[in-house]
Amino acid sequence: MHPxxxxxxxxxxxxxxxxxxxxxxxxxxxxxxxAWRMLFPSLFFLExxxxxxxxxxxxxxxxSDMTDEAFVAKVxxxxxxxxxxxxxxxxxDRFKARLRYAVVDAQDxxxxxxxxxxxxxxxEIVFYLSTSPSLFGPICEALKAAKLISGKxxxxxxxxxxxxxxxxxxxxxxxxxxxxxxxxxxxxxYLGKEAVQNLLSLRFANALFEPLWNKAxxxxxxxxxxxxxxxxxxxxxxxxxxxxRDMVQNHLLQLLCIMxxxxxxxxxxxxxxxxKLFIYATGLGVTQGAAVNTGxxxxxxxxxxxxxxxxxxxxxxxxxxxxIVNSSILMPGFVGVDQIQIxxxxxxxxxxxxxxxxxxxxxxxxxxxxxxxxVTVN
Length: 378
Fold this sequence. Notes:
Layout lengths: L23 E5 L4 H16 L8 E6 L5 H16 L5 H8 L2 E5 L8 H8 L5 E5 L6 H10 L8 E5 L6 H14 L5 E4 L6 H11 L13 E9 L8 H6 L1 H19 L8 H15 E3 L4 E4 L26 E9 L7 E7 L7 E8 L6 H4 L3 E6 L1
């Protein structure tokens, strides 16, 4: 079932009611942008559907010195803003009763004693790390030292996992030292979007599109993501990781794999992952370099662009930037050239668009005339 959202307020509750789950959900980075804009509203929507386990405690953990009351007031503000007219006072009363706050510095192991006191004797705990990847390791090590991890504990880490291969391996080694692999969840929240989840059905369960989805009929795929939210309080994160790691290697490449992968053997997560990994391992070639232009509109159609990625933050005039990355799908049965087009935070408009352009009679549209879109997903 897709999580309820303001655009889908009437999503039905789970037919069997709340399912047995963890005792506590600990959100590190609870005062960060992702927590306020996405995570707390999502948890509230689950509460509205009756999908949170009975007795679940939600603990926000961050460095900011804040009382429980101030924390609840801030969560209420962001949840009301996201839910709008669909905000339910009844659901909120249930939800706020779950909320607690703990002042925890990820780089100060002694501060985890405060978290241990808030959790009490909770047995099964989910630790959600909505922090800079550089803090994943210290948090796990501090949790282990404070004896907050049991065999039932789970850890969730957000992308990107590190800033290069070496740091990614180091983070995974630290995770493995504290949690078994079946208790580690590496997530890309973009994949939770309903439109993204529906892409698999669009591709493999649609009698109209499925026979056409190959290099004989498709000329190119263009993926465009535009954000109006600026860097704002995330300057340290973007200064260290940047839009390429934040958007392209995660959200955009996930979309690209969904568009290019072979049909999975089943809808099982491992089967879907295996087909994506096959694209990464054998079929994806990215043109060296990309281009960044400031203060320009997104072009109507993709163009081959090469150059050097250079995005600067701090000067408001340079926040309106555009990045185009060329990539090729080398799969034997698939399309020749794909385009990933992405704007970094701070653009004029917000929206995601995925366009597949069809050849005319099997001939490139650059020869026969204007592009003919096969399907556009917003």
